[in-house]
Design brief:
Length: 1102
């Protein structure tokens, strides 16, 4: 990936001019309030009118983005997602719809409280204003000194023969590395967010975050020109009593519907926080789920003398006790092929008393995973002491195996014990081979290693020694070839599981995927194994805790339940997801998503109504907030719900039954709220719902967006189910990943400060529209400043000089420009409709700009631009740009085009006459001919291969002749007909069939020609491809545009230009102006001329 390069600083006068316009129109909009949108009143449409008629008479659009979390300000990535909703809202307003875009502030969950608690601890450590905090230099110096001291101690121990006390648990990571890997102090993060140091102490109160960041985010969004109806905003949590009641209603109804249940469930769990760690609670590992493993009990039948001495010295005598090394595996059916057991010499293992005379050896972190409990630790024993011990492993035919060392075992994964199956595990095969080749190096006896793997699974692809085959195929030489081993492991698992047949044991001959659960059950039933869970990958909570999987009593949402899932799938099938990848991603989530922990004990939020000791977790109180947006301005005037709204209703009056009535779940309700007020709220909901477009990053598909579908289909009638979800990728900055640590990072406020609002919005629109990662290129933002400023200057010049512009009848280029504007208006409309904003920007801004420049250039030869077309260009440009650059567009619309009203109430431009394909093709023909003349000029000025002579002397005037073929060569007509016949039969162009019809001498010219036809058939209807007649009069087009064509050459002076038409095969042509007969040169360019593609000849005037 290219290195990120910040755009160079430039003179800011142009930007500052645009920013003045932006501030001016933001002030105007603050007074006019164009973004405050209401449902039709009772006077406009009586209450009780059907939803269908309501929408037919008053079209609407409702968009939202995933509301941002209030532990900081918005960054460029937020701005990118936000822009999609804003652009859509602006466009739909132009389509005559009441377009609504509200934005709230999410505060539920752990992050804010965890950060506040960190600040409290830091204030205790460093003082109220962190005055005792070490400087970075002091901290780094102290850490280096500590590292040096430890290294000296370790060296002295080696020299004196001392050994490390393995009973003492110590971290293996150096302090310097630890410092490099940990996050900054929280007060430093607050400084990064722009909070003055003296104010940071206030954030030790979590409620202060809710007071500080929402107004700041609102300010920054407004600076960007946000089309947000801020009346409909709110903060979540019980700080807002109305939203609190809304979430309680939601929970109560889901519980009544049987969607919320209680019981023990495996969940990702933070021991430090004492509660489940859900996606929004995680510093890393979002989307990671519990994974089921089989814990294999490998009995230690004889410890080494060193291990035995150590154990007894520390008070543990294994005599008469069952001691097991516990290995985690995803493939219990392969236990028939065990040849040893691996441990790491770098790991200190715990010896845990499991009760009933059984002891497990595994890592400390895995002890609470193993059998659903936390067991007493007898002592620690280093892996080095275990190497060489004798073991007995279940199912393997080999009776006495050994414990052997493996360098690649991770303490953070599994149990730290790995059972060895070298026939089917590439890692095990390579490690076994390495031990056999270098026993002395590894400090083992070679006799301890079983040399020949046991074949246990056969596949057609890899035989019965899958690991050996893959290791040789991928040329894996060492356990350190981690990338190739990872690939081999994936291939081995997939092929073995889906296509393998078991060769050993009770289920010999059975497919592996069928045998696996049976073998696992047999092992568990026999007491030789047990089932346990751990995270699929590492998960770190926001409090800095490495999470485990725990079996916890909890309230959970029963996602994945058959009937509920069927409803969710039905909703998805009818939904517009704007990209096939998005729909596929949802279908994948529906396949695996099951129970989701609802309850938590730490954080901010709403209490579960029937179990007040628990809070509703943050992804579960944010599933249908879009329904709350529709009425919240009627409930409260401020985001905290402190001041009652337009209807003067208290939070206590919003009972569950009232919410049901408002959201059309019941048609009658007993309430002290007057019926007219209830109907007013109900009208707002039933008018704006369903949500037309929910916009979010693709990373929220596995949780927030899927929960949104599930909850909507559970709570609302089918007519209110969501109809669209649009997902985008992550945003890169200058072609590199955004990162605070590297400095390649921008907040929304920084973007606006550096480039202004509209130029930032142009760069956001140009960043990309797919679910792949997009790129905000600062050079594009700078280019937008220049383009907008120059456009402003030109428009002002046109306004001041409009009386000097040409009027009267249109000439060809007037008609062509008018037609091209209409064509680009239609293209831009289609792009906006499809939410392809990059393409809309291209056609409605860049291509429109090019069309004007071309028209301005050619019109200079015909008396200048036409006044009506200049006016049309400015007004339609303003309208097409308004979704992306609303400030600049409103300025053009009012101050240049002369409208008194806002562009936010205007309509998309229309044109009476349809776009003429013939005129479009004629204009493109002229432009293409201009390019052909320039290319001919370049060729004529090139030195010949032999000698230094050129065709044309650049210092002498030239004559340009255009040779227009009125017919196609006979050979082309012949092969077009052959291709047509082949295509009519099978609807494809079979090149082999075509070759069978081609004469050998024609092959070189025919096959390239047919290839072009084939490509045209891939993108155009066959009737257009096979009908090669031009839609315009080519000779007329040339005659009309000769003055423009004469100016095409860039380096030579054209004395005259002529056009000659002829039929292919003729030796004489006719001059289109004089009618004189002209002998045709035998030049290749003329021989290759066809209708629509004239030959060009440039010669110095004699």
């Amino acid at each position: 990936m290219a290195e990120a390069k910040e755009a160079p600083e430039e003179n800011t006068s142009r930007r500052d001019t645009l920013v003045e316009i932006e501030k001016k129109y933001q002030a105007i909009w603050a007074k006019e309030k164009p973004f405050e949108v209401d449902a039709p009143s009772e006077q406009e449409e009586p209450y009780g009118t059907s939803v269908e008629k309501l929408h037919e008479d008053y079209p609407k659009w409702y968009a939202s983005m995933a509301y941002p979390y209030m532990n900081g300000v918005l960054h460029a990535g937020h701005a990118f997602t936000y822009s999609k909703a804003d652009f859509a809202t602006g466009f739909e307003r132009l389509c005559g719809k009441r377009a609504l875009f509200p934005l709230g502030f999410h505060c539920t969950g752990m992050p804010i409280l965890a950060s506040a608690d960190k600040l409290k601890r830091e204030m205790e450590m460093f003082g109220e204003n962190f005055e005792r905090a070490p400087s970075k230099e002091e901290e780094e110096k102290a850490l280096k000194e500590e590292d040096e001291r430890k290294k000296k101690e370790e060296q002295m121990k080696k020299e004196t023969g001392q050994h490390e006390d393995v009973t003492k648990f110590t971290a293996k990571k150096s302090k310097v590395k630890e410092k490099a890997g940990r996050a900054k102090f929280q007060f430093e993060i607050m400084e990064q967010l722009g909070v003055p140091k003296e104010e940071i102490k206030q954030f030790a109160d979590p409620k202060h975050w809710l007071e500080y960041f929402p107004p700041l985010v609102k300010k920054h969004v407004t600076m960007l020109g946000g089309r947000v109806d801020w009346r409909r905003s709110m903060v979540t949590t019980d700080v807002n009593p109305y939203y609190n009641r809304f979430v309680q209603w939601q929970m109560n109804r889901l519980k009544e519907l049987g969607k919320i249940k209680f019981g023990k469930r495996y969940t990702i769990y933070s021991v430090k926080d004492g509660q489940p760690c859900m996606d929004h609670d995680r510093q890393s590992g979002e989307g990671v789920l519990p994974q089921e493993y089989t814990g294999i009990k490998i009995e230690v039948t004889g410890f080494t003398a060193r291990a035995l001495g150590y154990l007894r010295e520390h008070g543990f005598d294994p005599e008469g006790k069952k001691v097991y090394l516990v290995a985690a595996t995803l493939r219990p059916e392969t236990m028939y092929g065990q040849t040893c057991c691996f441990v790491s010499r770098k790991i200190d293992y715990g010896l845990f008393d499991m009760g009933h005379g059984e002891y497990f050896i595994c890592t400390r972190r895995s002890r609470s995973l193993l059998a659903g409990g936390d067991y007493k630790e007898a002592l620690l024993v280093n892996g080095d002491l275990l190497v060489g011990s004798k073991i007995h492993a279940p199912l393997t035919p080999l009776k006495t195996l050994r414990v052997l060392p493996m360098e690649t075992i991770l303490e953070s994964k599994g149990t730290g014990v790995v059972t060895c199956v070298p026939s089917d595990s590439p890692d095990d095969f390579v490690t076994t081979r390495d031990l056999l080749n270098k026993p002395e190096y590894h400090g083992i006896d070679r006799d301890w290693v079983v040399e020949d793997p046991i074949s246990i699974v056969r596949t057609d692809k890899y035989g019965d020694m899958c690991a050996k085959t893959l290791v040789e195929k991928l040329k894996i030489h060492s356990p350190k070839d981690t990338q190739q081993l990872a690939e081999a492991k994936t291939l081995a698992y997939k092929e073995g599981y889906y296509n393998g047949v078991l060769l050993k044991g009770k289920y010999q001959g059975m497919k592996v995927e069928d045998a696996k659960p049976k073998v696992k059950k047999d092992l568990v039933d026999a007491g030789l194994a047990f089932v346990y869970n751990e995270p699929e990958k590492a998960v770190m909570s926001r409090s800095g805790d490495s999470c485990i999987v725990s079996l916890e009593d909890q309230w959970y949402l029963d996602y994945g339940e058959k009937n509920w899932k069927q409803q969710a799938v039905a909703c998805l099938q009818k939904m517009n997801t704007y990209a096939p990848d998005t729909k596929n991603a949802f279908e994948g989530v529906f396949d695996w998503l099951k129970n989701w922990a609802l309850s938590r004990t730490y954080g901010l939020g709403t209490r579960i109504p029937w179990d007040q000791k628990y809070l509703v977790e943050s992804l579960s109180d944010s599933t249908v907030y879009q329904a709350y947006y529709t009425i919240c301005h009627l409930l409260h005037r401020d985001i905290y719900g402190r001041e009652r709204g337009l209807l003067d209703i208290s939070a206590d009056q919003m009972t569950d039954d009232v919410w049901d009535y408002v959201f059309c779940r019941r048609d009658e309700v007993v309430s002290d709220i007057p019926r007219a007020k209830l109907d007013r709220m109900r009208r707002e909901f039933e008018y704006f719902y369903p949500l037309d477009e929910s916009i979010s990053g693709k990373d929220l598909i596995p949780n927030h967006l899927t929960f949104y579908i599930y909850t909507n289909v559970a709570l609302f009638r089918r007519q209110f189910w969501p109809t669209g979800i649009r997902c985008n990728g992550h945003l890169m900055l200058n072609n590199a990943k955004m990162s605070k640590s590297t400095g390649n990072f921008r907040t929304l406020a920084q973007l606006v400060a550096k480039f202004g609002a509209d130029a930032s919005r142009v760069a956001l629109a140009d960043a990309g529209d797919s679910v792949e990662d997009a790129n905000f290129d600062e050079s594009n933002a700078n280019a937008a400043i220049l383009r907008l400023y120059n456009l402003k200057e030109w428009c002002e010049t046109m306004k001041s000089s409009e009386t000097s512009l040409r009027t009267g009848d249109y000439n060809f280029f007037d008609t062509a420009f008018d037609n091209e504007m209409n064509q680009l208006i239609d293209e831009t409309f289609a792009h906006y409709k499809a939410t392809h904003y990059k393409l809309a920007l291209k056609s409605g801004f860049f291509d429109y700009h090019y069309a004007r420049d071309y028209y301005r250039e050619v019109s200079a030869l015909y008396g200048g631009m036409h006044r009506d077309l200049v006016a049309k260009y400015i007004e339609t440009l303003a309208l097409m740009l308004s979704p992306v650059t609303p400030h600049f567009a409103d300025y053009l619309y009012r101050e240049i085009a002369g409208h008194t009203g806002s562009i936010h109430t205007a309509r998309w431009p229309t044109h009476a006459a349809p776009v003429s394909k013939s005129i479009s093709e004629e204009l493109e023909y002229v432009r293409r001919l201009q390019r052909s003349i320039r290319e001919a000029e370049i060729q004529s000025l090139k030195k010949k291969k032999k000698g230094k002579q050129v065709d044309v002397d650049v210092n002498r005037p030239v004559d340009v002749t255009l040779f227009i073929a009125r017919t196609f060569p006979d050979w082309q007509d012949k092969y077009v007909e052959i291709v047509r016949q082949i295509f009519d039969k099978c609807h494809i162009v079979d090149m082999k069939q075509v070759r069978g019809h081609v004469d050998g001498r024609d092959m070189k010219k025919v096959m390239p020609f047919v290839s072009v036809l084939k490509k045209q058939l891939d993108v155009s209807p066959p009737e257009e491809v096979f009908n090669r007649e031009l839609s315009f009069d080519e000779i007329r087009a040339v005659k009309l545009t000769l003055p423009v064509l004469k100016r095409a050459p860039a380096q030579v002076s054209v004395a005259s230009i002529h056009a000659v038409f002829f039929n292919n095969g003729d030796s004489v042509g006719t001059d289109v102006s004089s009618g004189a007969q002209v002998d045709l040169p035998r030049a290749k360019s003329i021989q290759n001329a066809t209708p629509g593609n004239p030959g060009v000849q440039i010669r110095n005037v004699a």
